[in-house]
């Protein structure tokens, strides 16, 4: 199973497509091995799925599930022999007469081997054949996974540099590896504990309207146009070159006109040397015109490194190693390290700094650079800081005003985000079509699998399981929501908007999903309550999926958490195992089953169906009685 789903994920181009195909497999594979309805009760048009077509990957997994189910059933039931608890006739005085069991085989003592053979058409003689085929399937899926993984290899980024720029002079901070220092300075860190004070020209930094942050990660929706926020180009952001995306990000932040600082997180990441130089020249012009800039940069070359005027270099643990002028061609910086006992500088000045302080993967340093800095530069720097604070105290005191978390009103944010996300969904046909295709396929598959189920014992059970199977696809649908939720959500308003935007699309999808209601054999007189549950159920799994995503750091953890929640709900809603057979686990049914709308959807539609069936039977009996009396 794991090998199949990994191969499926590696073969697909997007998360939505992979989850759609995975959901189709999840829907088909447990239905046709014979648990939900036996092979004799399957319709002829679809019964072939349970044992043929070895070439289709999806049906191959169905076949693997069928073989595994037959292997386990025949191995466990071949030695079982139980007493039938539903004998006809039954009651006092019927013990020593001819009684028949309502179970398949009809004998008072139910033989497990015969029960499996008659109910499921399984045979113990095929056990080891099935085991060998399952082993072959396992190796085949693993081989497919390795093949698709090799064809879809991707590269990852490495270490980075943090740089500080201030107006008319560029001051650089460089830790040993990539850091979230810019996120903290922009007050966008949501985890951990951050202490200390930030001062800009003596007063404490204002939380809003004074600085903006350009993140390293592309925060734009791929189907939005830069022209929506600034005059750049009438093209979708997802189609732009990396440099143009960086310029779009910087332009969006500059449109706010930050009064004090502009934060950038690795503005040259994933850029070639020419594009990186163009970005650096642009930022240099901003600094020369009085805009204070603070940013990180990934492995600056010698050409980029000489753009900066000052450097604040940190090593692991936040210890300051150097703080001062860089000098022409970094001569001042290099002289400082060589004067204090380091080796001679190699051609790469950036790598030289990391190697000297022991920040590389194999580099080590026996020199206490932090102690040397405290003894040499720290005193002069502290004197300069006190002088700046003293000049700030002499200025006229400005009355502070209370600022809200955001500069834009909440309602205005909500409306703008709602329009943006609705447009984003409309421009993302892959995501929407994957949801609609999944709903349409699931609806038609359930419809024809349980086509016109009769009012017999097996037919009634088939109707019951048709409701249950329609709720299974809520898990992958919720997982699709989580990917977008984690990639887009950065505020409370965005969370609310994503919930509101998903509702109409889910309702449209549910209208396709629940089209099996009449075809399976449910009464049309009760379709109103069925439609109401079909509208409410998508809201349920949408909120559950987004709630799991809001508690998770990434989409993988969110999918695991959401799947675990739905697993408990499905296992204890009374369908897979009736309430009377749960034993000590009945409390889980009361906690998870009765509270969940999943159980409410199944129970209410099922109860309405039973009531309608009883009404029809009562009407027929009453008509027959009237005819007999007449």
From TrEMBL:
UniProt-listed SUPFAM superfamilies: P-loop containing nucleoside triphosphate hydrolases
Residue numbers spanned by region Disordered: 204-225
Record domain ABC-2 type transporter transmembrane: where: 413-591
Topological category with respect to the lipid bilayer: Multi-pass membrane protein
Span of domain CDR ABC transporter: 88-171
Cellular component GO terms, alphabetical: membrane
A Gene Ontology molecular function term of the record: ABC-type transporter activity
PANTHER family in UniProt: ATP-BINDING CASSETTE TRANSPORTER
Protein name from the UniProt record: ABC transporter domain-containing protein
Organism: Dendrothele bispora (strain CBS 962.96)
Taxonomic lineage from the root: Eukaryota, Fungi, Dikarya, Basidiomycota, Agaricomycotina
């Amino acid at each position: 199973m794991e090998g199949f789903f990994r191969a499926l994920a590696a073969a697909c181009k997007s998360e939505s497509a992979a989850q759609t195909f995975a959901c189709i497999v999840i829907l088909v594979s447990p239905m046709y091995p014979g648990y939900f309805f036996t092979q004799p009760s399957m319709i002829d048009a679809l019964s072939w799925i349970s044992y043929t077509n070895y070439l289709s990957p999806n049906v191959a997994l169905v076949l693997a599930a069928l073989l595994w189910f037959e292997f386990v059933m025949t191995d466990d039931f071949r030695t079982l022999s139980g007493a039938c608890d539903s004998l006809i006739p039954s009651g006092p005085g019927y013990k020593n007469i001819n009684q028949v069991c309502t179970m398949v085989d009809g004998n008072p003592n139910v033989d497990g081997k015969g029960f499996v053979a008659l109910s499921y058409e399984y045979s113990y003689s095929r056990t080891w054949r099935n085991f060998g085929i399952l082993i072959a399937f396992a190796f085949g899926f693993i081989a497919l996974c390795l093949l698709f993984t090799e064809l879809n290899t991707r590269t990852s980024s490495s270490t980075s540099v943090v740089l500080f720029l201030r107006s008319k002079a560029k001051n650089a901070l460089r830790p040993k590896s990539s850091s979230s220092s810019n996120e903290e300075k922009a007050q966008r860190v949501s985890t951990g504990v951050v202490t200390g004070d930030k001062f800009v020209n003596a007063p404490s930094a204002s939380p809003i309207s004074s600085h903006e942050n350009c993140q390293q990660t592309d925060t734009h929706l791929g189907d939005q146009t830069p022209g929506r926020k600034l005059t750049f180009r009438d093209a979708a952001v997802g189609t732009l070159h990396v440099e143009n995306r960086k310029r779009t990000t910087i332009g969006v932040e500059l449109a706010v006109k930050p009064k004090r600082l502009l934060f950038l997180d690795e503005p040259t990441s994933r850029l070639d040397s020419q594009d990186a130089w163009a970005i650096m020249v642009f930022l240099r012009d901003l600094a020369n015109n009085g805009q204070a800039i603070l940013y990180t940069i990934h492995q600056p070359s010698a050409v980029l490194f000489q753009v900066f005027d000052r450097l604040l270099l940190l090593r692991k643990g936040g210890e300051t190693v150097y703080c001062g002028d860089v000098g022409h061609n970094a001569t001042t910086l290099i002289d400082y390290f060589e004067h204090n006992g380091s080796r001679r500088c190699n051609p790469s000045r950036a790598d030289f700094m990391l190697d000297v302080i022991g920040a590389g993967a194999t580099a080590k340093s026996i020199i206490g650079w932090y102690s040397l800095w405290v003894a040499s530069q720290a005193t002069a720097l502290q004197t300069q800081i006190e002088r700046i604070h003293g000049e700030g105290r002499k200025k006229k005191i400005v009355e502070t005003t209370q600022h809200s978390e955001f500069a834009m009103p909440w309602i205005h944010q909500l409306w703008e985000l709602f329009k943006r996300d609705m447009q984003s969904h409309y421009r993302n046909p892959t995501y929407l079509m994957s949801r609609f295709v999944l709903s349409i396929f699931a609806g038609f598959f359930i419809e024809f699998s349980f086509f016109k189920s009769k009012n017999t014992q097996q037919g009634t059970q088939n109707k019951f399981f048709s409701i249950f199977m329609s709720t299974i696809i809520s898990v992958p649908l919720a997982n699709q929501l989580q990917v977008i939720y984690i990639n887009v959500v950065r505020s409370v308003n965005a969370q609310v908007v994503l919930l509101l935007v998903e509702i109409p699309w889910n309702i449209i999808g549910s209208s396709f999903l629940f089209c099996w209601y009449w075809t399976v054999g449910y009464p049309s007189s009760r379709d109103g309550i069925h439609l109401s549950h079909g509208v409410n159920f998508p809201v349920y799994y949408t909120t559950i999926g987004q709630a799991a995503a809001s508690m998770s750091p990434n989409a993988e953890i969110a999918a695991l958490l959401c799947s675990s929640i739905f697993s408990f709900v499905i296992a204890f809603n009374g369908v897979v195992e009736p309430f009377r057979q749960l034993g000590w686990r009945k409390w889980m049914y009361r906690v998870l089953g009765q509270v969940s709308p999943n159980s409410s959807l199944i129970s209410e539609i099922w109860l309405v169906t039973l009531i309608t069936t009883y009404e029809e039977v009562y009407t027929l009996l009453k008509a027959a009685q009237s005819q007999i009396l007449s």
